[in-house]
Each structure stands twice: as C-alpha cells, then as structure tokens.
Design goal:
The radius of gyration is 19 Å and the shape is globular. It has helices at about 20-30, 60-65, 100-110, 135-140, 175-190, 215, 220-225, 230-235, and strands spanning about 10-15, 35-40, 50-55, 70-80, 80, 90-95, 115-120, 125-130, 130, 150-160, 165-170, 190-200, 205, 210, 230. The chain is built from 8 helices and 15 strands. The chain has about 240 residues and is α+β, with helices and mostly antiparallel strands. It folds into 2 domains: about 10-65 and about 205-235, Pseudouridine synthase (2-Layer Sandwich), CATH 3.30.2350.10; about 70-200, Pseudouridine synthase, CATH 3.30.2350.10. The two termini are about 35 Å apart.
C-alpha cells in the first residue's frame, strides 16, 4: 500500500463511542501507514464527536491546538452519583430527584459560569506523584486532588424529562464535563452523573466539517489527501 508519510496537516474526525482517542490515532496510523499521528484533546471512550487529528510535521502543533476552547452537548442523569462521574462508574449513591425544570436547572447552572476551580475526578488521567489518578482509583484509593482553574462560558439546559436533562457547555481546555455534572447533582442534593457527551467544536473547528471514522478508514489514499487541512491553515 502507498503510504502518505509526507502528509503534514490536520484531519477532523467524528469519534465513535467505545474507542479511546489513542485508539483513533492508532487505527489511522496503521490504515494509512503515516509515521507521525497525534490528537489535540482527549475524549473519554464513551464520548463521541470532534477529534482534531494532526499528521506529520503538524504533530508539533498538538499542544497549541489542545489549548483551544471547546463546546459540548450531552445528557445528565439526576438521582445517581457514580465513582467516575459518568455512566461507566459504580453507582455510589441514589437519592430522590427533586422537582426540576429547565428553568430550575439553568438557575442552578449559573453558579458554575465564569472562572471556576474544578477538582478532577479520581477516574481521570491527571497524574499525582507521576501516577495517573485512575490507577489509584482502581486500587480503591481516594486522594486529595489539586483544583485547577478553568472558565465556563456557557452552561445551559434545553430539555428535561426526569431524570435526564440535555445541556450545552462552552469552556476552556482541561474542563471535566463529568465533574460539572457531578457537582451540579451535589448542589441540587440528589447526586448526578454524565450519561452521554458529544464534542461539537474545538477552537474554530466544528463537528459539521468532520468525517466519521468508519468513512475515513474506507477512503482511498487520494480521497484522504483532499480531507487534510494544510499545515499553515491549522494554526494561522
């Protein structure tokens, strides 16, 4: 198979659920035999949506692009708090859900808009003493985590059908949407966890311009080349 080892640029991929961001990088590298492939912002395995992939010399831009603001949409389930703050974790507490409406949820969410010191979940890749927190969590350990400064531009709810609510968040890099869901549940006194998540935008890149991973992997090399954002257009 011909290899596009000289490709330098970006690809906008719609990540499917069930794969890690590294899995996506790996299958693209192997399918098209591109030596250097990276991504610009991790999505949890269950999450879907925009993953900016960088190829060749453009991999040196990954840190810069990773710093871009993000936009997400998803659902939160109220009444259940989990160990990972999402649906993949163990249910730790169950509580009755109070009367909620979209207006009530938006009023409560306002407390999280602006600068925020957010504590990362234990089930995360954040390292403490050189060890990822999720490895400690697997051993049943709970350690104190240092809050990180983030900024929430928007946290709005558009639907509610007990116990699920649909929302949209615009935020800075490093924001754990799982933590926003968990913390809102704590504020409302019933607990909550993130039940689904989709990333819509990373900086100036939008999900409408992304290609599904399945479609991408079925493309001939000549078609892939047409989808690559040139190096100079990635970070003007």
């Amino acid at each position: 198979m011909q290899a596009f080892e000289s490709l330098d640029g970006g690809l906008l991929v719609d990540k499917p659920s069930g794969m890690t961001s590294h899995d996506v990088v790996d299958v693209i590298r192997r399918r098209f035999k591109i030596k250097k492939v990276g991504h610009c912002g991790t999505l949890d395995p269950a999450a879907t949506g925009l993953l900016v992939i960088v190829l060749g010399k453009a991999t040196r831009l990954s840190e810069k692009l990773m710093g871009d603001d993000k936009v997400y949409e998803g659902q939160i389930k109220f009444g259940e708090a989990t160990s990972s703050y999402d649906a993949d974790g163990e249910v730790l507490a169950v509580a009755p859900v109070p009367p909620l409406t979209v207006d009530v949820l938006n009023q409560a969410a306002e407390a999280f808009v602006g600068d925020l010191l957010q504590v990362p979940p234990m089930v995360s890749a954040v390292k403490q003493g050189g060890i990822p927190l999720y490895k400690m969590a697997r051993k049943g350990m709970e350690v104190e985590r240092k809050p990180r400064l983030i900024h929430i531009y928007q946290y709005r709810f558009s639907s509610y059908s007990e116990p699920f609510a649909g929302f949209r968040v615009a935020c800075t890099k490093g924001t754990y949407i799982r933590s926003l869901a968990h913390d809102l549940g704590q504020k409302l006194g019933c607990g909550a966890h993130l039940s689904s998540l989709r990333r819509l935008a990373c900086g100036r890149f939008d999900i409408v311009d992304a290609t599904s991973l399945d479609a991408l992997l079925q493309m001939p090399l000549s078609e892939l080349e047409k989808r690559v954002i040139p190096f100079l257009k990635l970070a003007p």
